[in-house]
């Protein structure tokens, strides 16, 4: 059985939304470092995916939503976006949503073009990414941007802090001092 209830949101996203549930924020949530500057897109991305990387990454870093730990998810989004655009262009050039072929008995059949399946699949990947990072129009209407955002997207937690991602990976945990 899977986890019940709505999927948890990252604390940064809750802060941007103004913590609508007014529940206490997770103070011990791991906080991965922000990338130092804008990371170069992976060399194997096509030109459309690289353009999308360069368009969206600076804003996600500025909002504190794209960290070193999130780069793989963001790369997947850019790959999906590149494939979606390529499939859409190919489908547009074909001027038909179906292949027409004649079988051995002479009957004419119509089969949907494979680009349609690619477009549908990549649209779902993109939609999931947008939901995770609060990038849909509906998610933005629920957000409140803080008055001061870090210009460089730099981590606000020092390295080794128990709340930093490195602290989490190194086994540092917040200890409950009242129970000692």
The ordered string of helix (H) and strand (E) elements is HHHEEHHH
Overall form: elongated
Calculate the mean pLDDT score and round it: 78
Q: Which percent range describes the beta-strand content?
A: 5-15%
Q: Which structural class do you get from the secondary structure elements?
A: mainly alpha
Ends distance: 36 Å
Number of strands: 2
**Helical stretch count?**
6
Radius of gyration: 22 Å
Concise description?
The protein has about 180 residues and is mainly α. About 40% of the residues lie in helices and about 5% in strands.
Question: Could you please describe the fold and organization of this structure?
Answer:
This protein has helices spanning 11-17, 47-62, 71-94, 114-132, 137-141, 165-169, and strands at 98-102, 108-112. The protein has 180 residues and is mainly alpha-helical. Strand 1 and strand 2 form a beta hairpin. Helix 2 (47-62) packs across helix 3 (71-94) and helix 3 packs antiparallel against helix 4 (114-132). The relative contact order is 0.17.
Q: Which key features would you list for this structure?
A:
180 residues; 42% helix; disordered C terminus; elongated; 2 strands
Layout of helices and strands, plus pairs?
Blueprint: H1 11-17, H2 47-62, H3 71-94, E1 98-102, E2 108-112, H4 114-132, H5 137-141, H6 165-169
Antiparallel strand pairs: 1-2
Helix pairs in contact: 2-3, 3-4
């Amino acid at each position: 059985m899977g986890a019940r209830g709505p999927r948890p949101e990252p604390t940064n996203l809750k802060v941007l939304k103004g913590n609508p549930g007014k529940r206490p924020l997770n103070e011990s949530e791991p906080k991965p470092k922000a990338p130092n500057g804008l990371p170069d897109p992976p060399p194997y991305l096509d030109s459309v995916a690289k353009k999308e990387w360069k368009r969206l990454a600076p804003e996600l870093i500025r909002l504190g939503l794209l960290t070193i730990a999130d780069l793989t998810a963001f790369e997947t989004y850019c790959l999906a976006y590149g494939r979606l655009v390529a499939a859409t262009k190919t489908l547009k050039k074909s001027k038909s949503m179906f292949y027409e072929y004649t079988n051995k008995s002479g009957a004419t059949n119509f089969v949907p073009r494979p680009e349609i399946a690619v477009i549908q699949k990549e649209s779902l990947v993109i939609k999931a990414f947008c939901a995770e990072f609060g990038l849909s129009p509906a998610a933005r209407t629920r957000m409140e941007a803080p008055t001061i955002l870090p210009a460089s997207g730099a981590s606000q937690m020092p390295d080794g802090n128990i709340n930093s991602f490195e602290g989490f990976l190194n086994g540092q945990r917040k200890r409950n001092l009242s129970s000692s």
